[in-house]
């Protein structure tokens, strides 16, 4: 095996519109090495891979810094096609398969083996016939390397997900010049035995001299299979480790890191308080964020955080309670059964929701600030409405006063209450969302990703507002967020959701290791 | 023996479920077969009249319906924009009639001339469809209305003015604009159906129905045997040989009886060249689906995103699909009109899109899947209904008009129902995917 590195990325940096998302990343892989990359969401893993594959999102935003060498030669990768030509392959997280094609057709997609026929001699390459015999043989060979014994002429539709994953891998293996193979969260959708099979297959592929980049948040898998591990956090390189010198706990700690709490952490003890919102076996069919049987109590007057990695189901919980996605289970609000799948009922019983999808679900973008603030309350609670027999009319004077009050209280920067919401910055839009939720005088406020896509100063104001509501009005708040630091700075307790279930509930001052372990699906070191 | 009985029971329920799934899947086709049969019985037509009509109608319409298959393959739905191809075909027919090129040479000239015109229209349409992905069908429908305006401008205003045409039979008496009806009699009429008319030969490529039936069966049997034993290299075995012998025997017996007794059926002439052209198109579509470009189209049809990631030039493939469909529609409309013998200059292309689509859907095709068999079966059923419904209406309600209303209702109804069923099925599939 050549000792030389097959892929070397040096001092990689990238910024989008002045915001640095990646800086000073070094990465070096030798042939036959399995190299793990760990990091939370937003740590920069996908940006790094986008750079490696020359995705247009990188080049259309001003390129990147640093240099890439493939097999010792400096390269400029401008497009995914060029990356493929250099022998870099990728097994996608979401399946890139065509269900009505056979395994062979999928493996050979756009790399079909062709043979000439009389028509193609006149009309050219495009009308050459497909040579299914050769294609089937090649596909068989690739599938055999993975020890998959399904027929190559079976159609992909209806295969178990595990086999779909292997079909994707077979497609990459079939590429003759393959040097580096990237696995992006390949085990996320697999059962345990399928995942074991996959890890075994990875070892065998590596033994053939192909370098493997393995991206995952399952730390035990990293430890099982990787030779070297790189940890990223917040777009920066935290460290390189070899398998021998590290363990799951160290990796978990490196991944989460100790961040400075922006606000003083909560030390209140609210364990005596009665639960106000009880979830029992809640299932929510939200695509990409499925909830599978969550049990959780929210206590009166607390701020409960819900954290976890993207796609694990944390977002689904609030959406399910509010009836935005089909859900089943038992939800009790102040002891009373809450009818599910009905946003109107949820709101009528004193729940208000600030959605993570601000521009899609949260706001009427082309309406005024004042209408946005009172809209839900007028619709559901007949506030701000004058009745004239069967007709009703919005009470514009009261609305104006109300809007002005919130614009002042929440410091919404705008030209006036009639400004269109679309023209506001993200932070101010978020404040309008919160004002709307507060106008409903909710008993429990559900907030999802309140600081997503807004700048640091605005983040601070949003978080301060939430805390003030909690302290001064005694409002119970359930806050879902991908940013652990943010949750730890304002919540009393933090539930970590993994695989659609609550993996554990931690105190904001629990150790980084515990947070890291829960998020990667492991049991915490010690109970919280 | 308990597990066995249990197994049998589950097999039974599985069979019942399969049967139900089959019925649901082929609901439209089964319904139309039943309607056609009922209509045929009620109408009380003689087999002779029915056969004469159906042979003429199926041969003239099949090519047009087949032109819809390739865009379905590329995931672009039912190509309502074939109306543009039909317009191109009509335009060429008008000019070739004006130049006085008659018979088969005239038709060949039409086919050659319409090709670049239809390709150009197809390219523009493809461009438009790439900007309206997912809305190709409604875009195509509206595009046809828009094109109608341009077509009228050219043939009502420009011809005789900007485009000089000195022809009193074609051009209106004012000297500007084409007359509302163009008569192809004595010119391009039957140009393809009856190539021998130029020399006054009545039989050349225009056999009687019994002879045509016999030769088609013979061709199929010989082709099948060649395919099995020569192409696939299998050893001769009894089943295919016996089946071939039986088919051939029956065909010969039927034909000979018909010819011997010189029944009315011998009066029916079959446009053999047209049939050969249709067969060639079918063969081409089959061949095409197994080429690189065909494979790309099927990939794009299933998932544009996956195809694009694999490096397939999605937009280019879609444009080619529409161009091919448009050229085929142009040819198909020329074949259609040479059989009709006359056409309404400003109207005969209008219904082409809707009726062809309806025929394809009746055959069991959907927005996402269409085969040659479905197209041919659809044409057969659609026209059977066309033939029998006025007569059936007269027999049942004492008014042929009722049958006429019914068939118009059916043609539009089937499009609406099939589109709704497809949307419903997609919804169910998406829900099933979410359950995963």
Architecture blueprint of SSEs:
The complex is a heterodimer of chains A (528) and B (436).
Chain A: E1 7-16, E2 19-29, E3 34-38, H1 45-52, H2 56-59, E4 65-70, E5 73-75, H3 80-85, E6 88-91, H4 103-107, E7 114-115, H5 118-123, E8 129-130, H6 132-145, H7 161-173, E9 180-184, H8 192-207, E10 211-215, H9 219-225, E11 228-233, E12 236-242, H10 248-256, E13 275-284, E14 291-299, E15 303-307, H11 314-321, E16 327-333, E17 336-337, H12 343-348, E18 351-354, H13 358-362, H14 369-381, E19 385-388, E20 391-394, H15 396-409, H16 426-439, E21 444-448, H17 456-473, E22 476-480, H18 484-490, E23 493-498, E24 501-506, H19 512-519
Parallel strand pairs in A: 3-10, 3-11, 6-9, 9-10, 15-22, 15-23, 18-21, 21-22
Antiparallel strand pairs in A: 1-2, 1-4, 4-5, 7-8, 11-12, 13-14, 13-16, 16-17, 19-20, 23-24
Chain B: H1 2-25, H2 27-43, H3 47-66, H4 69-73, H5 82-99, H6 103-131, H7 136-158, E1 181-183, H8 209-231, H9 238-260, H10 272-289, H11 292-302, H12 304-309, H13 314-340, E2 342-344, H14 352-362, H15 372-397, H16 400-435
Antiparallel strand pairs in B: 1-2
Description:
- The complex is a heterodimer of chains A (528) and B (436).
- Helices cover 34% and strands 25% of the residues of chain A.
- Chain A has 528 residues and is α/β, with parallel strands linked by helices.
- In chain A, the strands form six sheets. Chain A has a six-stranded mixed beta sheet. Chain A has a six-stranded mixed beta sheet with strand order 18-21-22-15-23-24, with helices on both faces.
- The longest helix of chain A has 18 residues, at 456-473.
- Chain B has two domains: 29-204 and 272-435, ABC transporter involved in vitamin B12 uptake, BtuC (Orthogonal Bundle); 207-268.
- Helices cover 73% and strands 1% of the residues of chain B.
- Chain B contains 16 helices and two strands.
- In chain B, helix 3 crosses helix 14 (352-362) and helix 14 (352-362) packs across helix 15.
- Chain B starts with a helix and ends with a helix.
- The A-B interface holds A 80-81, 84, 92, 96-101, 105, 109-110, 112, 114, 117, 119-120, 125-130, 161, 285, 287 and B 287-288, 290-293, 295-296, 298-299, 302-303, 305-307, 309-312, 434-436.
């Amino acid at each position: 095996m050549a000792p030389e590195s097959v892929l070397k990325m040096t001092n990689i940096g990238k910024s989008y519109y002045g915001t640095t998302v990646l800086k000073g990343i070094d990465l070096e892989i030798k042939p036959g090495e399995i190299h793990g990359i760990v990091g939370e969401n937003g740590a920069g893993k996908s940006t790094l891979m986008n750079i490696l594959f020359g995705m247009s999102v990188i080049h259309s935003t001003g390129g990147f810094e640093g240099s890439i060498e493939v097999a010792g030669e400096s390269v400029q990768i401008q497009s995914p096609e060029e990356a493929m030509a250099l022998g870099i392959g990728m097994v996608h997280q979401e399946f890139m398969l065509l269900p009505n094609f056979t395994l062979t057709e999928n493996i050979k997609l756009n790399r079909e083996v062709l043979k000439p026929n009389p028509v193609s001699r006149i009309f050219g390459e495009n009308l050459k016939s497909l040579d299914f015999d050769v294609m089937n043989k090649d596909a068989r060979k690739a599938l055999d390397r993975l020890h998959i014994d399904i027929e190559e002429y079976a159609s992909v539709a209806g295969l178990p997900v595990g086999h779909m994953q292997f079909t994707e891998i077979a497609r990459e293996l079939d590429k003759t010049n393959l040097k580096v193979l990237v696995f992006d969260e390949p085990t996320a959708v697999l059962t345990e035995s399928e995942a074991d099979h996959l890890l075994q297959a990875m070892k065998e592929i590596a033994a053939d001299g192909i370098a493997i980049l393995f991206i995952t948040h399952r730390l035990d898998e990293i430890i099982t299979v990787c030779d070297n591990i790189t940890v990223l956090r917040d777009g920066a390189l935290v460290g390189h480790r070899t398998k021998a010198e590290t363990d799951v706990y160290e990796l978990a700690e490196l991944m989460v890191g100790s961040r400075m709490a922006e606000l003083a952490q909560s030390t209140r003890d609210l364990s005596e308080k009665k639960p106000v919102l009880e979830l029992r076996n809640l299932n929510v069919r939200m695509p990409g964020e499925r909830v599978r049987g969550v049990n959780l109590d929210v206590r009166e007057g607390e701020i409960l955080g819900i954290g976890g990695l993207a796609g694990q189901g944390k977002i689904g919980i609030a959406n399910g309670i509010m009836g935005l996605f089909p859900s089943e289970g038992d939800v009790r609000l102040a002891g009373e059964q809450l009818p599910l799948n009905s946003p109107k009922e949820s709101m009528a019983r004193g729940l208000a929701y600030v959605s993570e999808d601000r521009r899609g679900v949260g706001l009427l973008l082309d309406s005024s600030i004042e209408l946005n603030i009172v809209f839900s309350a007028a619709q559901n609670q007949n506030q701000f409405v004058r009745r004239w027999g069967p007709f009703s009319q919005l009470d514009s004077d009261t609305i104006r006063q109300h809007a002005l009050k919130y614009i002042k209280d929440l410091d919404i920067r705008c030209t006036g209450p009639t400004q269109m919401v679309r023209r506001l910055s993200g932070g101010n839009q978020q404040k309008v969302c919160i004002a709307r939720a507060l106008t409903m005088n909710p008993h429990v406020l559900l907030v999802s990703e309140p600081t997503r896509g807004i700048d640091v100063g605005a983040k601070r104001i949003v978080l301060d507002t939430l805390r003030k509501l909690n302290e001064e009005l005694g409002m119970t708040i359930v806050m879902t967020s991908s940013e652990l630091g943010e949750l730890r700075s304002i919540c009393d307790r933090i539930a970590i959701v993994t695989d659609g279930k609550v993996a554990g509930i931690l105190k904001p001052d629990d150790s980084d290791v515990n947070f890291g372990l829960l998020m990667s699906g492991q049991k915490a070191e010690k109970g919280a | 023996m308990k597990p066995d009985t249990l197994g049998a029971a589950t097999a039974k329920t599985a069979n019942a479920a399969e049967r139900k799934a089959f019925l649901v899947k082929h609901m439209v086709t089964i319904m139309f077969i039943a309607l056609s049969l009922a209509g045929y019985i009620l109408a009380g037509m003689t087999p002779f009249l029915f056969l004469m009509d159906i042979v003429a109608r199926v041969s003239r319409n099949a090519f047009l319906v087949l032109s819809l298959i390739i865009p379905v393959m590329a995931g672009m739905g039912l190509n309502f924009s074939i109306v543009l191809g039909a317009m191109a075909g009509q335009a060429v027919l008008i000019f070739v009639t004006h130049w006085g090129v008659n018979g088969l040479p005239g038709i060949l000239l039409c086919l050659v001339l319409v090709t670049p015109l239809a390709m150009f229209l197809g390219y523009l349409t493809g461009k438009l469809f790439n900007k309206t992905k997912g809305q190709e069908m409604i875009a195509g429908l509206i595009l046809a209305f828009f094109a109608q305006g341009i077509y009228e401008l050219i043939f009502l205003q420009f011809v005789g003015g900007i485009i000089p045409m000195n022809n009193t039979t074609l051009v209106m008496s004012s000297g500007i604009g084409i007359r509302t009806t163009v008569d192809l009699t004595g010119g391009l009429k039957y140009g393809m159906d009856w190539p021998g008319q130029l020399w006054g030969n009545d039989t050349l490529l225009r056999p009687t129905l019994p002879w045509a039936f016999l030769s088609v069966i013979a061709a199929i049997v010989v082709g099948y045997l060649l395919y099995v034993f020569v192409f696939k290299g299998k050893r001769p075995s009894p089943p295919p040989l016996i089946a071939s012998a039986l088919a051939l025997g029956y065909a010969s017996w039927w034909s000979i009886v018909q010819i011997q007794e010189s029944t009315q059926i011998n009066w029916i002439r079959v446009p053999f060249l047209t049939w050969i052209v249709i067969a060639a198109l079918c063969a081409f579509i089959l061949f095409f689906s197994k080429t690189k470009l065909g494979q790309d189209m099927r990939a794009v049809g299933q998932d544009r995103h996956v195809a694009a990631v694999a490096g397939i030039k999605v937009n280019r493939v879609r444009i080619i699909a529409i161009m091919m469909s448009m050229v085929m529609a142009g040819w198909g409309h020329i074949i259609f009109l040479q059989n009709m013998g006359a056409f309404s200059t400003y109207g005969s292309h209008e219904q082409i899109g809707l009726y062809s689509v309806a025929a394809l859907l009746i055959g069991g095709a959907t927005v996402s899947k269409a085969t040659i068999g479905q197209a041919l079966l659809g044409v057969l059923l659609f026209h059977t209904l066309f033939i029998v419904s006025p007569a059936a209406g007269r027999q049942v309600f004492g008014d042929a008009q009722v049958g006429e209303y019914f068939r118009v209702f059916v043609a539009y109804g089937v499009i609406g129902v099939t589109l709704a069923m497809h949307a419903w099925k997609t919804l169910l599939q998406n829900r099933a995917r979410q359950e995963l």
